[in-house]
Amino acid sequence: METKKLALEAAKNHLQLRGYNGFSFQDIADELGIRKASLHYYFASKEDLGLALIEDYSQAFQDWLKKYEDHHALERIKKFIDMYYSFSQDGLKVCPGGVLCIDFNTLPPKLKKAVVEFQSGQQEWLTEQFKTGCKQGSLKKDIKPKETALLLMSTCQGALQIARMQNNPKIMKAACTSLLQYLEK
User: Fold this and answer.
1) In whole angstroms, what is the distance from residue 180 CA to residue 184 CA?
2) Nearest Cα to 137, choosing from 68, 74, 71, 65?
3) What is the DSSP track for 55-108?
4) pTM
5) Structural domains present in the chain
6) Where does residue 92 fall: left (phi above 0), alpha (psi -120 to 50 degrees), or beta otherwise?
7) Adjacent-strand bridge partners of 79
8) Could you give the angle at which helices 170-183 and 73-89 cross, rounded to 10 degrees?
9) In the structure, what pLDDT confidence band is assigned to residue 92 with cuts at 50, 70 and 90?
């Protein structure tokens, strides 16, 4: 099982730095010092590896949610921004959902479906945070929660890419924090 875990970690790194189409089984095998055929024991195809990555990212997001379930909505939204910011601080990576959206038209069908579900889950959670923040009085009452969730996610993902291009992780945090200031009461 250690090889499978190491392969997933290597694939995460490659995905967030190079995109789904920017790495191969051979890249992972070379990094781990194993034969490419050995990876097929754990993942029948690259699509299966991609699905395992989405499952791993989804579980990590669920675990992350539990850490902040007792916080107020505005604080959870700020922590969400911090989560995205952590990607830029880790070698100027981009978020897994964002990078898979870039490669979306070339993804296999099952992986496309998993990406849509992953992104939709995050957007739904964020929508609920904006609804709750309005009710708690920490956010402006006239915002549209669903559209605002989409706006924040888009800002996070786009700002990660600009931060990478400009080699400046702070750009990401500044863009998202500025947006949130317009929404706070």
Assistant:
1) 6
2) 74
3) HHHHHHHHHHHHHTTTS-HHHHHHHHHHHHHHHHHTTS---HHHHHHHTGGGS-
4) 0.93
5) 2-183 (1.10.357.10)
6) left
7) none
8) 160
9) confident
